[in-house]
Task: structure prediction
Amino acid sequence: MTEQRVRRGGPPQWWRNGPPWWHRAADEEAEPGRRRPWLSTALFTVFVLVGTHFSAHNQHGHREPLDAFGFALLLVTSGMLLWRKRYPAFVVCGTAATTLVYYAAGYPYGPVFLAVVVSCFSAVVAGYRRAAWTALGTLWAAHALISLWLYRWLPPPGDTAASWGQELAVATWVVAVVAVSELARVRREQWAKERAERAQAARRRADEERLRIARELHDVLAHSISVINVQAGVGLALLDTDPEQARTALATIKAASKEALGEVRQVLDTLRTPGDAPRAPAPGLGRLSELVDQAATAGLTVEVQGAPPRLPPGTDLAAFRIVQEALTNVVRHSGSRHARVLLDHDSRALRLRVDDDGPATGADAGGSGNGLAGMRERAAALGGTIDAGARPDGGWRVLGVLPLTTEEENR
Result:
């Protein structure tokens, strides 16, 4: 099967995210034992030596010939670039100083000035902007001072003064180098900020997904295991005196565990293949009758009043889980064996109310105690609310309000 790639509009990926080698360099700078740029420095040094050698032939008679001191200045200037990532401020000042000595000694013009450009670029991108500006500005000012006045006392003999036009051209190149360096710094900061935002968004999505899965597993397992717990107690109590009733309790346990396993498998399948559609529809208030039947097998009589409207899938699932958790809490914590579920709605919101007459049993029913927090998280994710507390006449009430439209639909 051939792979089809779709090209989208906008700038290329490398322009939005930065070239991979730039991020590798940034990561290396963050490590204490990062590598030095041996290869690039060696290639640059060879380029400077060879380029200066050819430049000396073209400037023969106009500049001083290269000697051991001149080659030493070239090697030192290029060699300092080896530390441009670890000590960018020192390197930009050092290359500017050695280049100035090289020029003041009357040696031929050549690619040695590129070492200052590279070190300035590295310093600005690394955040040492003032050091780069100071070094480059000092080099230009000293160059202008030598070219316009000090040339009389410096080699080569017979040198003439440069024009102000030439110095203006040099100043233009200095400004251009600083501008390009600043542009690269700003772009790199943008790339770093975008990478941090993408990483933070990915962590946030992962946290939200973990919470969603935790809520789903809690709601599925809490209800089913509560039913299984109650029926297991009934079966044990009636095993000797009423085997047929004990058989019915075991059948209820089997059905509840099978349904729980199916819903857990659906949640796990969604986790394994998040891009695939679910194999089974998500539960909703349309399955409220099944929830009432399951509560009945746990000994709880549920009276339902009202009918739900047509709900969006997310709201339908949240409403079902809220009612399911409320009934589970009645089975676990209430001495009442009767509960009432009221469904009411208008054009803007669905209101759920689950009541029981209590009193609370006070017994440890097990569980994580996160059921009420999970209900509130589900409602808050949809812009709704959950209120739960004791009723004035005894018992417990859970009241939920879920909006039927999102903010985007109301605009």
Q: What stands out?
A: Residues 164-238 form the longest helix (75 residues). DSSP finds 13 helices and five strands in the chain. The longest strand covers residues 338-345. The beta strands are 301-305, 338-345, 349-356, 385-390, 396-403.
